[in-house]
Design goal:
Blueprint: H1 2-18, H2 37-63, H3 76-85, H4 94-195, H5 215-238, H6 244-281, H7 284-294, H8 301-309, H9 316-327, H10 336-364, H11 368-391, H12 407-432, H13 439-452, H14 454-484, H15 489-499, H16 504-524, H17 528-570, H18 579-629, H19 635-676, H20 697-716, H21 719-741, H22 748-765, H23 771-783, H24 805-812, H25 823-830
Helix pairs in contact: 1-2, 4-6, 5-6, 6-7, 9-10, 9-11, 10-11, 10-12, 11-12, 11-13, 12-13, 12-14, 14-16, 14-17, 15-17, 15-18, 16-17, 16-18, 17-18, 17-19, 18-19, 18-20, 19-20, 19-21, 20-22, 21-23, 22-23
InterPro entries: Sec10-like, Sec10_HB, Sec10_N
Region (Disordered): 57-85
Protein name: Exocyst complex component SEC10
Length: 835
């Protein structure tokens, strides 16, 4: 449309440009749609300007020339013509355009006036329509308000009518109920009079009470009559009245009550018989009908108990088979594993049977939860206890069963298995369904007589196990000793000691017993305080057993050390003996030394195993016992004190034995020094031969012995115990060497030999890692210099170490030139305080 409009405009523009007699004509249609003034003006110029350009071009072609168009260079003649053309207008059609624009302006003004008129007319018409519309809306609103009012009145009327109808319905229903109640009351009075006729006469009753098809109705009416009669008798008994009629009525109702009771009993028996017959035929619908009717008699308790009592699972033969399944054949000794297997099978069978009965009970009885409660209670109070009576025979703590018969531990293991499996049965029965029955409480009551004194049996069992184990170890040791024989008294003693050595395996077995007992404590003790008390009692047994066992083992090892010391004392000889006697004594002393070294090694092994045993107990306490004691205030600390007290005896025996070990080592060191040390070792002759810088033979033998024998100590001892032992041994060795060297005199070459021995001893004791001992042997090296330096240099020898002057004076007296050089006078003048 826009293109067609533009075409029309172009036609009009061309016409108007060709002659002034055709002015530009505009109408309203030109301003409709997508109007743009810029487009209108552009169209006007674009239509008129080309015609002007064409006329100018035609004029320039008529004059001729080689000028270039579009503003390029022109000739002089062109310039002249241009100058002449300046006097004529640049746009000759401007007047035409101006007139066109004026004409357009006039037309636009006319168009505006026309449009304004039309707009005014439209506004008046719209106002009139709006007024009419508002009037119509107002009328409609009034009509709607009236309609709403009508609806409200109608609703109120309907509500009023409905309330009236409801009241009428209530009155009718109440009247009907009263009529029905009156009718039922009349019937009940009639039936009551029938039952009140004569005692024991049930033949003249209405057909209702003999019709098998109306048993439910008869049972309901009989229960109502009996309830009313018993209530009336109760009121008559409470009220004291002289009226004769009341007494007569009371006696009459007593007859009715007796007849009703007799009828109800007869009816209940008939229903139970019918129920039994239907049960035999598995007619669940008939059973359900009977059970529903019987529920009116004492809430159906008789039917429930009757059903449960006839279950085959409670037959005597079945219960006897239970004992055979769990305990095995009569006369055989059941084991916990076989009992576990038997109980699992039996309890699974019971659970399956109860589950099958539960399906029947759900279909038959109107209150299945009550029946399930009675059934499960019968299981937990009849069938399970009779089995447990045969399984858990409580042994006597005075006359305990022997270990060959299983001992007390057999009873405890049976008790744990039975308790655990019976609790599993209770949980399974709870899952099947047992109503409101506290089946877990019933289970606990079954084991209450056993749990009350359980911990006493646990302690007695642990003591019995320990006693049996000790007897077994003694028998093994005796048998081994007899089969091996003895070679000499000393060797026999050491062998017996070795065979009765402490065994970590035995202590581990103690811990295993205790761990099993703790697991039973966990099983039987539900309260934290009770559990902590039982755990502490059981732990005390373990501590006593381990303490006694390792203490006795250490004492046996000490006995070997004592026997070795006695052998050494036996072969100590005087000075005036023959060579033959001395040789025999030396040979016996060698044997005693060998026994001492063997006893030392045996005791160190015992100490090592003792430490390992204590570590096992401590680890067991940390891993298994602590978490059970921590919830109770003070229980953990008390058990730690018990452990420290129990281990103190073993620590005392170990301390005494280590002291004996040091005595044994020092005795052999002294023997070696006495036997191997020669006087010429430290006073070699001045024969011009180069001095010997090797350690003396005695020193070599002593260091070799110490290195060999202390290997066991380095392996067995740890930590502070090792440090204390080696420090004490180093101090004793230092003191023994000092006393030993006091027996000899030294020349300068002997002093060098002594210093070489001291270096050898010092290097060995450095392996003790005892700084105080190292310091003492370093001072010994300084003291040895008193034999090497010239007499005049002694005064300056100890200026830096005045603490050893006393020992230095003792050493100086051992110089071979002490008297010849008059060193006593010189020293007294130099160190007057020491004299």
């Amino acid at each position: 449309m826009k293109e067609s409009k533009d075409g029309k405009k172009a036609d009009r523009f061309s016409k108007s440009s060709s002659t002034d007699s055709y002015p530009l004509v505009l109408d309203i249609d030109d301003f409709k749609g997508d109007f743009s003034f810029d487009a209108l003006f552009g169209n006007l110029v674009n239509e008129l300007l080309p015609s002007y350009l064409e006329e100018e071009a035609d004029a320039s072609e008529g004059h001729g020339g080689n000028d270039m168009q579009n503003g390029h260079m022109r000739t002089a003649s062109d310039a002249g013509r241009s100058a002449q053309g300046l006097s004529s207008p640049l746009f000759p059609e401007v007047d035409a355009l101006l007139s066109l624009f004026k004409n357009s302006c006039m037309q636009l003004t006319d168009l505006r006036e026309q449009i304004d008129g039309k707009l005014y007319s439209l506004k008046k018409e719209v106002a009139a329509q709006d007024s009419k519309h508002r009037k119509t809306l107002s009328q409609l609103e009034k009509g709607v308000d009236g309609l709403f009012g009508s609806f409200a009145r109608l609703d109120s009327r309907i509500s009023s009518v409905g309330q009236t109808a409801a009241k009428i319905g209530d009155h009718l229903q109440s009247a009907d109920a009263q009529r029905e109640t009156a009718s039922q009351t009349i019937d009940l009075i009639k039936y009551l009079m029938e039952f009140n006729s004569s005692p024991g006469d049930l033949m003249e009753l209405s057909p209702l009470f003999s019709d098998d098809s109306r048993v439910a109705e008869a049972a309901s009416i009989a229960q109502k009559l009996r309830s009313f009669a018993e209530e009336d008798i109760g009121r008559q008994g409470m009220a004291v009245s002289p009226v004769v009629g009341n007494a007569t009525a009371s006696r009459g109702l007593e007859v009715a009550v007796a007849n009703l009771q007799e009828y109800c009993n007869e009816l209940e028996n008939r229903l139970l018989a019918k129920f039994d017959a239907a049960s035999q035929r598995r007619e669940l619908s008939t059973m359900a009908e009977c059970a529903k009717i019987l529920s009116q008699f004492n809430r159906g308790t008789s039917a429930m108990q009757h059903y449960v009592g006839l279950r085959p699972m409670f037959d005597v033969e079945v219960m006897n088979e239970d004992a055979r399944l769990v305990l095995g054949d009569p006369g055989s000794q059941p084991s916990p594993s076989s009992v576990l297997h038997g109980l699992s099978s039996l309890y699974k069978e019971i659970t399956d049977t109860v589950r099958k009965d539960a399906a029947t009970i759900t279909v038959v009885f109107p209150s299945p939860n009550d029946v399930m409660s009675i059934l499960v209670q019968r299981v937990m109070e009849d069938r399970v206890p009779k089995l447990l009576e045969k399984l858990l025979v409580k042994p006597s703590l005075v006359n305990q069963p022997s270990m060959e018969d299983g001992g007390l531990i057999l009873y405890l293991r049976m008790l744990a298995v039975a308790y655990e499996k019976t609790n599993e049965l209770a949980r399974d029965l709870r899952g099947v369904g047992c109503g409101d029955l506290d089946v877990e409480g019933l289970t606990e009551s079954l084991f209450l007589p056993h749990k009350d004194i359980y911990i006493e049996y646990e302690q007695a069992s642990l003591r019995q196990l320990y006693k049996a184990k000790m007897e077994e170890l003694r028998a093994e040791s005796q048998q081994s000793s007899e089969s091996t024989g003895t070679i000499g008294r000393s060797k026999g003693a050491s062998m017996a000691s070795f065979q009765q050595q402490i065994s970590v395996t035995v202590v581990t077995e103690f811990v295993r017993w205790n761990e099993e007992a703790i697991s039973r404590c966990n099983l039987f003790s539900s309260q934290p305080a009770t559990l902590a008390a039982n755990v502490r009692a059981v732990l005390t047994c373990l501590l006593d057993q381990v303490s006694l066992y390792i203490t006795e083992g250490l004492e046996r090892a000490r006995d070997s050390l004592t026997e070795a010391a006695a052998l050494r004392e036996r072969f100590v000889l005087g000075t005036s003996v023959s060579r033959r006697v001395a040789a025999a004594a030396a040979s016996a002393a060698e044997a005693a030394a060998a026994a001492g070294e063997s006893s030392f090694r045996s005791f160190m092994v015992a100490v090592q195993r003792c430490g390992s045993s204590v570590a096992i107990v401590q680890q067991y306490f940390a891993n298994s016992i602590s978490r059970l004691l921590l919830p109770v205030d003070g229980a953990h600390a008390a058990s730690c004190e018990d452990m420290a007290t129990a281990m103190s005896n073993a620590e005392g025996a170990a301390y005494k034995g280590l002291q004996q070990c040091i005595e044994t080592v020092m005795a052999e060191v002294e023997r070696l020094l006495s036997a191997e040390q020669k006087a010429t070792d430290y006073r070699s002759p001045d024969d011009g031969i180069a001095p010997d810088h090797r350690p003396t033979n005695a020193c070599t033998r002593v260091v070799a012995y110490l290195s060999r024998v202390l290997e066991a100590a380095f392996t067995a001892l740890e930590g502070l115990n090792k440090q204390a032992f080696l420090t004490e041994l180093g101090n004793r060795l230092h003191k023994g060497l000092l006393n030993h060297w006091q027996k000899f005199t030294f020349n300068p070459s002997g002093g060098l030999r002594l210093k070489r021995d001291i270096i050898e001893y010092g290097e060995f004791v450095r392996s003790f890692n005892a700084p105080s001992v190292d310091e003492k042997f370093e001072l010994l090296g300084i003291l040895a210099n008193v034999f090497i330096v010239a007499p005049e240099s002694l005064s300056s020898l100890f200026e830096g170490t005045p603490s050893i002057r006393k020992d230095a004076q003792r050493f100086i007296q051992l110089r071979d030139d002490y008297k010849s050089a008059k060193l006593a006078a010189k020293l007294s003048s130099l160190w007057p305080s020491s004299s």
